[in-house]
Design a protein that fits this description.
Layout (H helix, E strand, L loop, with lengths): L9 H4 L5 H32 L5 H26 L1 H20 L4 H29 L5 H28 L3 H22 L14 H16 L6 H23 L16 H21 L1 H9 L3 H8 L1 H13 L8 H21 L9 H24 L6 H29 L8 H14 L1 H21 L1
Amino acid sequence: MSEEPIETGWSALLRPVWLPALSVLVGGVLLHSMNVLMLATVLPSVVEDLGGATLMSWTSTAFLASSIVASACTGYLTSILGARTVFCAGALVFGVGALTCALAPSMAEVVAGRFVQGFGGGLLTAIAYVLVRSTFPENLWARGFSLMAGAWSLSILVGPLVGGLFARHGDWRGAFFAVAAIAVALVPVALRALPRVATSSEGARVPVLRVMLICAAIAAMSAMAVAPGVPAKVALFAGAVTALVMALAIDRHAPRPLLPTDAFSLATPTGVGVWLLLLLAIAYSPLQIFVPIFLQVLHGLDPLGAGYMVAGASFGWTGMSLILAGTPSERSGRLLVGGPVLMTMGLAGLAFLMALEPVVLVLPAIVLMGAGFGVCWAFIAQRVIGGARSGEGDLAASSMATVQQAGFALGAALSGLVANAAGLSAGLSRADIAEAAFWVPASFVTAAVAAAVMGGRLVSLSKRTA
Protein backbone atom coordinates (compact mmCIF):
# COMPACT_ATOMS: atom_id res chain seq x y z
CA MET A 1 0.00 0.00 0.00
CA SER A 2 2.91 2.33 0.68
CA GLU A 3 3.92 2.09 -3.00
CA GLU A 4 0.69 3.74 -4.18
CA PRO A 5 1.19 7.29 -5.47
CA ILE A 6 0.30 9.97 -2.94
CA GLU A 7 -3.08 11.54 -3.71
CA THR A 8 -5.27 14.06 -1.98
CA GLY A 9 -9.03 14.60 -1.95
CA TRP A 10 -11.97 12.30 -1.34
CA SER A 11 -11.29 10.47 -4.59
CA ALA A 12 -8.11 9.05 -3.04
CA LEU A 13 -9.97 7.54 -0.08
CA LEU A 14 -13.01 6.40 -2.07
CA ARG A 15 -11.08 4.36 -4.60
CA PRO A 16 -12.34 0.77 -5.11
CA VAL A 17 -9.28 -0.65 -3.34
CA TRP A 18 -10.24 1.10 -0.08
CA LEU A 19 -14.04 0.83 -0.21
CA PRO A 20 -14.46 -2.63 1.42
CA ALA A 21 -12.30 -1.69 4.43
CA LEU A 22 -13.91 1.73 4.66
CA SER A 23 -17.41 0.25 4.57
CA VAL A 24 -16.57 -2.23 7.32
CA LEU A 25 -15.07 0.40 9.63
CA VAL A 26 -17.87 2.92 9.15
CA GLY A 27 -20.43 0.13 9.50
CA GLY A 28 -18.92 -1.01 12.80
CA VAL A 29 -19.00 2.49 14.30
CA LEU A 30 -22.54 3.08 13.01
CA LEU A 31 -23.75 -0.25 14.38
CA HIS A 32 -22.60 0.72 17.86
CA SER A 33 -23.66 4.37 17.83
CA MET A 34 -27.15 3.91 16.34
CA ASN A 35 -28.25 1.53 19.09
CA VAL A 36 -28.63 4.21 21.76
CA LEU A 37 -31.40 6.03 19.88
CA MET A 38 -32.81 2.83 18.40
CA LEU A 39 -33.42 1.55 21.91
CA ALA A 40 -34.99 4.86 22.98
CA THR A 41 -37.53 4.42 20.16
CA VAL A 42 -38.51 0.79 20.92
CA LEU A 43 -38.21 0.89 24.72
CA PRO A 44 -41.86 1.83 25.37
CA SER A 45 -42.90 -1.23 23.34
CA VAL A 46 -40.45 -3.40 25.29
CA VAL A 47 -41.87 -2.25 28.62
CA GLU A 48 -45.44 -2.72 27.39
CA ASP A 49 -44.62 -6.30 26.42
CA LEU A 50 -42.28 -7.39 29.23
CA GLY A 51 -42.90 -4.93 32.09
CA GLY A 52 -39.92 -3.90 34.22
CA ALA A 53 -40.35 -0.15 33.95
CA THR A 54 -38.02 0.36 36.92
CA LEU A 55 -35.16 -1.09 34.84
CA MET A 56 -35.64 1.20 31.85
CA SER A 57 -32.65 3.44 32.61
CA TRP A 58 -30.38 0.47 33.18
CA THR A 59 -30.69 -0.63 29.55
CA SER A 60 -28.64 2.42 28.58
CA THR A 61 -26.44 2.33 31.67
CA ALA A 62 -25.37 -1.28 31.08
CA PHE A 63 -24.61 -0.55 27.43
CA LEU A 64 -22.49 2.52 28.21
CA ALA A 65 -20.67 0.91 31.13
CA SER A 66 -19.48 -2.12 29.21
CA SER A 67 -18.64 0.02 26.16
CA ILE A 68 -16.24 2.13 28.19
CA VAL A 69 -14.57 -0.91 29.75
CA ALA A 70 -14.21 -2.56 26.33
CA SER A 71 -12.76 0.60 24.82
CA ALA A 72 -10.28 0.88 27.68
CA CYS A 73 -9.10 -2.68 27.05
CA THR A 74 -8.89 -2.42 23.26
CA GLY A 75 -5.22 -1.46 23.09
CA TYR A 76 -4.33 -4.38 25.37
CA LEU A 77 -6.41 -6.87 23.37
CA THR A 78 -5.03 -5.58 20.08
CA SER A 79 -1.46 -6.25 21.19
CA ILE A 80 -2.38 -9.89 21.83
CA LEU A 81 -4.94 -10.76 19.15
CA GLY A 82 -4.38 -8.19 16.42
CA ALA A 83 -6.69 -5.39 15.30
CA ARG A 84 -8.60 -7.41 12.69
CA THR A 85 -9.36 -10.23 15.15
CA VAL A 86 -10.53 -7.75 17.79
CA PHE A 87 -12.86 -6.10 15.27
CA CYS A 88 -14.40 -9.44 14.26
CA ALA A 89 -14.73 -10.52 17.89
CA GLY A 90 -16.44 -7.22 18.71
CA ALA A 91 -18.96 -7.74 15.89
CA LEU A 92 -19.76 -11.28 17.05
CA VAL A 93 -20.13 -10.24 20.72
CA PHE A 94 -22.38 -7.37 19.65
CA GLY A 95 -24.51 -9.80 17.63
CA VAL A 96 -24.83 -12.19 20.58
CA GLY A 97 -25.97 -9.31 22.79
CA ALA A 98 -28.56 -8.19 20.24
CA LEU A 99 -29.84 -11.75 19.92
CA THR A 100 -30.13 -11.99 23.71
CA CYS A 101 -32.30 -8.85 23.69
CA ALA A 102 -34.42 -10.19 20.84
CA LEU A 103 -35.16 -13.44 22.71
CA ALA A 104 -35.46 -11.90 26.20
CA PRO A 105 -38.43 -13.11 28.27
CA SER A 106 -38.08 -10.26 30.80
CA MET A 107 -36.51 -6.83 31.18
CA ALA A 108 -33.65 -8.30 33.22
CA GLU A 109 -32.55 -10.32 30.19
CA VAL A 110 -32.79 -7.20 28.00
CA VAL A 111 -30.43 -5.41 30.40
CA ALA A 112 -28.04 -8.38 30.26
CA GLY A 113 -28.17 -8.37 26.47
CA ARG A 114 -27.45 -4.66 26.41
CA PHE A 115 -24.40 -5.21 28.62
CA VAL A 116 -23.05 -7.77 26.14
CA GLN A 117 -23.91 -5.49 23.21
CA GLY A 118 -22.07 -2.61 24.83
CA PHE A 119 -18.87 -4.60 25.21
CA GLY A 120 -18.91 -5.65 21.57
CA GLY A 121 -19.76 -2.13 20.46
CA GLY A 122 -16.96 -0.65 22.56
CA LEU A 123 -14.47 -2.93 20.81
CA LEU A 124 -15.86 -2.04 17.37
CA THR A 125 -15.67 1.69 17.94
CA ALA A 126 -12.23 1.83 19.53
CA ILE A 127 -10.56 -0.55 17.08
CA ALA A 128 -11.95 1.39 14.11
CA TYR A 129 -9.59 4.28 14.94
CA VAL A 130 -6.65 1.88 15.15
CA LEU A 131 -7.55 0.34 11.80
CA VAL A 132 -7.82 3.72 10.06
CA ARG A 133 -4.18 4.24 11.00
CA SER A 134 -3.01 0.79 9.85
CA THR A 135 -5.21 0.51 6.75
CA PHE A 136 -4.85 3.88 5.02
CA PRO A 137 -1.81 6.08 4.30
CA GLU A 138 -1.24 9.02 6.64
CA ASN A 139 -2.39 11.61 4.08
CA LEU A 140 -5.88 10.02 4.23
CA TRP A 141 -6.20 9.75 8.03
CA ALA A 142 -8.09 13.02 8.45
CA ARG A 143 -10.68 11.99 5.86
CA GLY A 144 -10.98 8.54 7.43
CA PHE A 145 -11.54 10.06 10.87
CA SER A 146 -14.11 12.42 9.35
CA LEU A 147 -16.10 9.45 8.10
CA MET A 148 -15.88 7.85 11.57
CA ALA A 149 -17.28 11.07 13.04
CA GLY A 150 -19.93 11.09 10.31
CA ALA A 151 -21.03 7.61 11.37
CA TRP A 152 -21.68 8.90 14.90
CA SER A 153 -23.78 11.76 13.62
CA LEU A 154 -25.55 9.58 11.04
CA SER A 155 -26.67 7.34 13.88
CA ILE A 156 -29.00 10.13 15.03
CA LEU A 157 -30.92 9.57 11.80
CA VAL A 158 -30.60 5.80 11.47
CA GLY A 159 -31.30 4.84 15.09
CA PRO A 160 -34.83 6.29 15.40
CA LEU A 161 -35.66 5.16 11.86
CA VAL A 162 -34.77 1.49 12.46
CA GLY A 163 -36.46 1.38 15.85
CA GLY A 164 -39.48 3.34 14.64
CA LEU A 165 -40.14 1.09 11.66
CA PHE A 166 -40.24 -2.05 13.79
CA ALA A 167 -42.08 -0.41 16.73
CA ARG A 168 -44.74 0.92 14.36
CA HIS A 169 -45.54 -2.65 13.32
CA GLY A 170 -45.53 -3.94 16.91
CA ASP A 171 -42.34 -5.98 16.45
CA TRP A 172 -39.64 -4.55 18.72
CA ARG A 173 -37.83 -7.90 18.73
CA GLY A 174 -37.37 -7.60 14.98
CA ALA A 175 -35.18 -4.53 15.47
CA PHE A 176 -32.73 -6.55 17.57
CA PHE A 177 -32.83 -9.50 15.15
CA ALA A 178 -31.96 -7.11 12.31
CA VAL A 179 -29.06 -5.61 14.27
CA ALA A 180 -27.74 -9.09 15.12
CA ALA A 181 -27.83 -10.08 11.45
CA ILE A 182 -25.91 -6.95 10.41
CA ALA A 183 -23.26 -7.56 13.08
CA VAL A 184 -22.66 -11.13 11.96
CA ALA A 185 -22.54 -10.07 8.29
CA LEU A 186 -19.67 -7.69 9.06
CA VAL A 187 -17.35 -10.52 10.07
CA PRO A 188 -16.62 -12.23 6.71
CA VAL A 189 -16.24 -8.87 4.99
CA ALA A 190 -13.83 -7.70 7.71
CA LEU A 191 -11.74 -10.85 7.38
CA ARG A 192 -11.23 -10.15 3.68
CA ALA A 193 -10.96 -6.35 3.72
CA LEU A 194 -8.95 -5.46 6.82
CA PRO A 195 -5.16 -5.87 7.01
CA ARG A 196 -3.35 -8.30 9.23
CA VAL A 197 -1.52 -6.65 12.12
CA ALA A 198 1.35 -8.29 13.93
CA THR A 199 0.70 -9.26 17.55
CA SER A 200 2.93 -9.71 20.57
CA SER A 201 1.70 -11.33 23.79
CA GLU A 202 5.07 -11.22 25.56
CA GLY A 203 4.56 -10.15 29.15
CA ALA A 204 0.82 -9.64 28.64
CA ARG A 205 -1.36 -9.40 31.74
CA VAL A 206 -4.99 -8.56 32.31
CA PRO A 207 -5.17 -5.03 33.80
CA VAL A 208 -7.61 -6.12 36.51
CA LEU A 209 -7.16 -3.26 39.00
CA ARG A 210 -7.45 -0.51 36.38
CA VAL A 211 -10.55 -2.06 34.81
CA MET A 212 -12.11 -2.49 38.27
CA LEU A 213 -11.50 1.19 39.04
CA ILE A 214 -13.06 2.18 35.73
CA CYS A 215 -16.05 -0.05 36.48
CA ALA A 216 -16.36 1.47 39.95
CA ALA A 217 -16.38 4.96 38.46
CA ILE A 218 -19.04 3.99 35.93
CA ALA A 219 -21.15 2.35 38.65
CA ALA A 220 -20.93 5.50 40.79
CA MET A 221 -21.96 7.68 37.84
CA SER A 222 -24.85 5.37 37.06
CA ALA A 223 -26.02 5.31 40.68
CA MET A 224 -26.31 9.09 40.63
CA ALA A 225 -29.49 8.72 38.57
CA VAL A 226 -31.29 6.99 41.46
CA ALA A 227 -29.46 8.41 44.48
CA PRO A 228 -31.76 10.37 46.83
CA GLY A 229 -30.77 13.98 47.36
CA VAL A 230 -28.02 16.22 46.03
CA PRO A 231 -25.45 15.34 48.77
CA ALA A 232 -25.54 11.66 47.80
CA LYS A 233 -25.19 12.52 44.13
CA VAL A 234 -22.22 14.79 44.81
CA ALA A 235 -20.57 12.09 46.95
CA LEU A 236 -21.01 9.53 44.17
CA PHE A 237 -19.63 11.94 41.61
CA ALA A 238 -16.59 12.64 43.79
CA GLY A 239 -16.07 8.90 44.21
CA ALA A 240 -16.24 8.40 40.44
CA VAL A 241 -13.67 11.11 39.78
CA THR A 242 -11.38 9.69 42.48
CA ALA A 243 -11.58 6.21 40.95
CA LEU A 244 -10.77 7.57 37.49
CA VAL A 245 -7.80 9.58 38.82
CA MET A 246 -6.47 6.49 40.59
CA ALA A 247 -6.87 4.41 37.42
CA LEU A 248 -4.98 7.03 35.41
CA ALA A 249 -2.16 7.24 37.98
CA ILE A 250 -1.73 3.45 37.98
CA ASP A 251 -1.97 3.29 34.20
CA ARG A 252 0.87 5.76 33.66
CA HIS A 253 3.32 3.45 35.44
CA ALA A 254 1.98 0.18 34.04
CA PRO A 255 4.11 -1.86 31.61
CA ARG A 256 1.11 -2.13 29.28
CA PRO A 257 -0.94 1.06 29.69
CA LEU A 258 -4.54 1.40 28.52
CA LEU A 259 -4.06 5.10 27.68
CA PRO A 260 -1.06 6.96 26.26
CA THR A 261 1.52 7.57 28.97
CA ASP A 262 1.08 11.32 28.52
CA ALA A 263 -2.73 11.26 28.55
CA PHE A 264 -4.13 14.48 30.10
CA SER A 265 -0.69 16.06 30.23
CA LEU A 266 -0.73 19.78 29.44
CA ALA A 267 2.77 19.63 27.97
CA THR A 268 2.25 17.33 24.94
CA PRO A 269 -0.08 17.42 21.91
CA THR A 270 -1.49 13.99 22.74
CA GLY A 271 -2.16 14.91 26.37
CA VAL A 272 -3.89 18.18 25.51
CA GLY A 273 -5.77 16.51 22.65
CA VAL A 274 -7.16 13.94 25.10
CA TRP A 275 -8.36 16.78 27.34
CA LEU A 276 -10.01 18.41 24.34
CA LEU A 277 -11.80 15.18 23.36
CA LEU A 278 -13.11 14.75 26.91
CA LEU A 279 -14.37 18.32 27.23
CA LEU A 280 -16.11 18.27 23.84
CA ALA A 281 -17.92 15.03 24.74
CA ILE A 282 -19.01 16.51 28.08
CA ALA A 283 -20.30 19.67 26.39
CA TYR A 284 -22.23 17.65 23.79
CA SER A 285 -23.98 15.31 26.25
CA PRO A 286 -27.01 17.54 27.15
CA LEU A 287 -28.05 17.51 23.49
CA GLN A 288 -28.38 13.73 23.51
CA ILE A 289 -29.95 13.34 26.93
CA PHE A 290 -32.23 16.27 27.81
CA VAL A 291 -33.00 18.24 24.65
CA PRO A 292 -35.48 15.60 23.33
CA ILE A 293 -37.35 15.77 26.66
CA PHE A 294 -37.39 19.56 26.59
CA LEU A 295 -38.77 19.56 23.04
CA GLN A 296 -41.53 17.10 23.91
CA VAL A 297 -42.74 18.89 27.04
CA LEU A 298 -42.24 22.53 26.06
CA HIS A 299 -43.32 22.24 22.41
CA GLY A 300 -45.55 19.15 22.32
CA LEU A 301 -43.43 17.16 19.85
CA ASP A 302 -43.81 13.38 19.81
CA PRO A 303 -40.69 11.29 20.62
CA LEU A 304 -39.88 10.57 16.99
CA GLY A 305 -40.32 14.22 16.00
CA ALA A 306 -38.09 15.39 18.86
CA GLY A 307 -35.48 12.81 17.92
CA TYR A 308 -35.37 13.96 14.35
CA MET A 309 -35.15 17.62 15.35
CA VAL A 310 -32.11 16.75 17.45
CA ALA A 311 -30.80 15.10 14.27
CA GLY A 312 -30.12 18.65 13.06
CA ALA A 313 -26.84 18.24 14.90
CA SER A 314 -26.11 15.29 12.62
CA PHE A 315 -26.30 17.48 9.53
CA GLY A 316 -24.07 20.10 11.12
CA TRP A 317 -21.53 17.51 12.26
CA THR A 318 -21.41 15.54 9.02
CA GLY A 319 -21.50 18.56 6.75
CA MET A 320 -18.64 20.36 8.46
CA SER A 321 -16.59 17.16 8.72
CA LEU A 322 -16.85 16.52 5.00
CA ILE A 323 -16.30 20.13 3.96
CA LEU A 324 -13.20 20.69 6.12
CA ALA A 325 -11.58 17.25 5.99
CA GLY A 326 -9.13 18.36 3.29
CA THR A 327 -7.87 21.38 5.22
CA PRO A 328 -4.04 21.35 5.25
CA SER A 329 -2.56 20.71 8.68
CA GLU A 330 -0.82 24.09 8.72
CA ARG A 331 -4.21 25.82 8.37
CA SER A 332 -6.27 23.56 10.63
CA GLY A 333 -5.15 25.13 13.90
CA ARG A 334 -7.93 27.72 13.89
CA LEU A 335 -10.48 24.88 13.63
CA LEU A 336 -9.30 23.45 16.95
CA VAL A 337 -10.53 26.65 18.60
CA GLY A 338 -13.40 27.37 16.22
CA GLY A 339 -15.15 24.06 16.92
CA PRO A 340 -15.49 24.64 20.69
CA VAL A 341 -16.52 28.26 20.03
CA LEU A 342 -19.39 27.04 17.82
CA MET A 343 -20.45 24.62 20.56
CA THR A 344 -20.38 27.48 23.08
CA MET A 345 -22.71 29.47 20.84
CA GLY A 346 -24.96 26.42 20.41
CA LEU A 347 -25.25 25.80 24.15
CA ALA A 348 -26.02 29.47 24.81
CA GLY A 349 -28.64 29.37 22.06
CA LEU A 350 -30.27 26.28 23.56
CA ALA A 351 -30.44 27.97 26.97
CA PHE A 352 -32.08 31.18 25.75
CA LEU A 353 -34.26 29.84 22.90
CA MET A 354 -35.56 26.49 24.13
CA ALA A 355 -38.68 27.85 25.82
CA LEU A 356 -39.55 30.28 23.01
CA GLU A 357 -42.07 29.75 20.22
CA PRO A 358 -41.96 28.67 17.47
CA VAL A 359 -39.86 25.58 18.05
CA VAL A 360 -37.90 26.16 14.84
CA LEU A 361 -35.97 28.90 16.68
CA VAL A 362 -34.07 26.17 18.52
CA LEU A 363 -32.88 24.43 15.36
CA PRO A 364 -29.90 26.72 14.57
CA ALA A 365 -28.52 26.15 18.08
CA ILE A 366 -28.83 22.38 17.63
CA VAL A 367 -27.05 22.56 14.27
CA LEU A 368 -24.25 24.65 15.81
CA MET A 369 -23.67 21.97 18.43
CA GLY A 370 -23.07 19.35 15.78
CA ALA A 371 -21.11 21.70 13.53
CA GLY A 372 -18.72 22.50 16.37
CA PHE A 373 -17.91 18.82 16.78
CA GLY A 374 -17.54 18.32 13.03
CA VAL A 375 -15.23 21.30 12.57
CA CYS A 376 -12.48 20.01 14.84
CA TRP A 377 -12.94 16.29 15.58
CA ALA A 378 -10.79 14.83 12.77
CA PHE A 379 -7.96 17.29 13.39
CA ILE A 380 -7.91 16.56 17.12
CA ALA A 381 -7.68 12.85 16.28
CA GLN A 382 -4.85 13.53 13.85
CA ARG A 383 -2.85 15.38 16.51
CA VAL A 384 -3.56 12.87 19.28
CA ILE A 385 -2.27 10.02 17.13
CA GLY A 386 0.41 11.93 15.24
CA GLY A 387 1.86 13.35 18.46
CA ALA A 388 1.92 10.03 20.29
CA ARG A 389 5.16 8.89 21.84
CA SER A 390 7.21 6.23 20.09
CA GLY A 391 5.38 2.90 20.01
CA GLU A 392 2.10 4.37 21.31
CA GLY A 393 0.36 5.17 18.01
CA ASP A 394 -2.15 2.33 18.24
CA LEU A 395 -2.65 3.00 21.94
CA ALA A 396 -3.43 6.66 21.27
CA ALA A 397 -5.87 5.70 18.51
CA SER A 398 -7.78 3.16 20.59
CA SER A 399 -7.93 5.54 23.58
CA MET A 400 -10.00 8.08 21.68
CA ALA A 401 -13.23 6.09 21.92
CA THR A 402 -12.57 5.43 25.62
CA VAL A 403 -12.16 9.13 26.32
CA GLN A 404 -15.18 10.07 24.20
CA GLN A 405 -17.50 7.65 25.98
CA ALA A 406 -16.12 8.61 29.39
CA GLY A 407 -16.91 12.22 28.50
CA PHE A 408 -20.47 11.32 27.55
CA ALA A 409 -20.89 9.38 30.83
CA LEU A 410 -19.43 12.23 32.88
CA GLY A 411 -21.59 14.74 31.02
CA ALA A 412 -24.68 12.64 31.65
CA ALA A 413 -23.97 12.59 35.37
CA LEU A 414 -23.33 16.33 35.53
CA SER A 415 -26.39 17.22 33.46
CA GLY A 416 -28.52 15.07 35.77
CA LEU A 417 -27.21 16.95 38.79
CA VAL A 418 -27.89 20.33 37.17
CA ALA A 419 -31.37 19.30 36.05
CA ASN A 420 -32.30 18.12 39.54
CA ALA A 421 -30.87 21.23 41.16
CA ALA A 422 -32.91 23.34 38.72
CA GLY A 423 -36.12 21.70 39.96
CA LEU A 424 -36.66 18.87 37.50
CA SER A 425 -36.74 16.33 40.34
CA ALA A 426 -39.81 18.06 41.78
CA GLY A 427 -41.95 17.05 38.82
CA LEU A 428 -42.40 17.29 35.09
CA SER A 429 -44.52 20.42 35.02
CA ARG A 430 -43.88 22.90 32.24
CA ALA A 431 -42.40 25.39 34.72
CA ASP A 432 -39.91 22.82 36.04
CA ILE A 433 -38.92 21.79 32.52
CA ALA A 434 -38.51 25.42 31.41
CA GLU A 435 -36.20 26.12 34.35
CA ALA A 436 -34.06 23.05 33.63
CA ALA A 437 -34.10 23.84 29.89
CA PHE A 438 -32.17 27.03 30.65
CA TRP A 439 -29.76 25.84 33.33
CA VAL A 440 -28.68 22.52 31.82
CA PRO A 441 -27.23 23.90 28.56
CA ALA A 442 -26.11 27.14 30.25
CA SER A 443 -24.05 25.18 32.80
CA PHE A 444 -22.22 23.30 30.06
CA VAL A 445 -21.01 26.50 28.41
CA THR A 446 -18.11 26.24 30.89
CA ALA A 447 -17.04 22.90 29.39
CA ALA A 448 -17.16 24.32 25.85
CA VAL A 449 -15.12 27.39 26.85
CA ALA A 450 -12.55 25.14 28.56
CA ALA A 451 -12.38 23.11 25.34
CA ALA A 452 -11.63 26.31 23.39
CA VAL A 453 -8.79 27.09 25.80
CA MET A 454 -7.42 23.56 25.31
CA GLY A 455 -7.73 24.01 21.55
CA GLY A 456 -5.57 27.10 21.76
CA ARG A 457 -3.04 25.22 23.87
CA LEU A 458 -2.95 22.40 21.30
CA VAL A 459 -2.31 24.88 18.48
CA SER A 460 0.58 26.37 20.46
CA LEU A 461 2.14 22.97 21.15
CA SER A 462 1.73 21.87 17.55
CA LYS A 463 3.63 24.95 16.34
CA ARG A 464 6.49 24.20 18.73
CA THR A 465 6.83 20.59 17.57
CA ALA A 466 6.39 21.35 13.84
